[in-house]
Amino acid sequence: MKWQQDSCVVHCKYKNLVVYFRVPLDFDLSSTRPETIELLNLVLFSPFHKEMLDRDFPAHDLKSKRCGLAFSGGLDSTAAMMLLPKDTELCYMRRDFESLLKHDNADRFCEAIPKRVWSVRSNHEKIRTLHGERVGFSMDLSCMAHVILLADYLNVGRICTGIVLEDTYLRGCSFQSLSESSIIGVDPFCFNFWRMVFNSFGFDLCLPVYGLSEVVTSKIVNNSDYRDLASACLRSDGECMACYKCYRKNLLKQNPIKINNGTLKMMDIGRLSHLPSLLYGLSKCEITSGPIVKKYQKALTQNLDFLERYPDFYLHDAIDAELIDAIKNNLSLLGVEAMDKEDVNNIKSFKRY
Ligand SMILES: [Zn+2]
Hints:
CATH architecture of the domain at 4-213: 3-Layer(aba) Sandwich
Bound molecules: zinc ion
Shape: globular
Strand content: 5-15%
Order of helices and strands: EEEHEHEHEHEHEHHHHHHHH
CATH topology of the domain at 4-213: Rossmann fold
Distance between the termini: 43 Å
Largest sheet: 8 strands, mixed
Number of helices: 13
CATH class of the domain at 4-213: Alpha Beta
Helix content: 25-40%
Structural class: alpha/beta
Number of strands: 8
């Protein structure tokens, strides 16, 4: 795809859609490396054009050690921000078309942070609709597209996002090791493959909360000054209390709300995401009846306390060796411990049933 810049809009034509990003005024596309644009094309379009990945990806040196985080204002990316170095650039992707998604919570958060948050408006979530799918990211890693586009401008080499344990090791029906993991949603390619792709363009794919459950990210944020700013709800200014996220996140705050329509709808269509943390929340709030408890009775008999800690192996799986000690130190400062042997057995034997 050929990208062009007109004033503060970087755009390309894809089928009958003009895909665009609104960039900072002094951004200059001609100063962006061709490799950076190639990577942007891969994360946006390769899910629909797999031949784009049919090539070699030789390793290249990291062009910068600085981190750029796809920051959403939710709990997971806030926890990621707290674990990453202080000079991490925060980049917020703002959906630039009418939808149910509300930006009020993220706006309030971005304004309260004592550093600049780069807000990038884009319509790239429409690309999928040209392939008969509903609006959304082309694949999981497309949530980083705006960070990749700004990477050279911001002198960023490590591209980071807040993908958590429930979307990585526990994404399937049972534990998946890194080599089996398909977090990018384009089987059969896995995280290792994408890390190699990023490396070949001079970037590092860095996932600081890859091994942390929502139980941990919620705890980190709820114990911090950001507790009243980070919000998972995308439907309302504040919490709508009617969506699945509001239901799940309140369970994790041990502040259960009545099961709502959003949750029931997700259950009906088989899309109760982050199920391990949901089950953990139900069990900690001692909720012993209702449709979810009924459906997942067997899964609820498992010891889920391992979700309070992190598996040591994730640090080596998802984070560059040079950053591991800093992240480990921050986890310790935030009171998050590593899993012991019993926890590791429990995570590896976890089943949804
Ligand atoms: Zn909500």
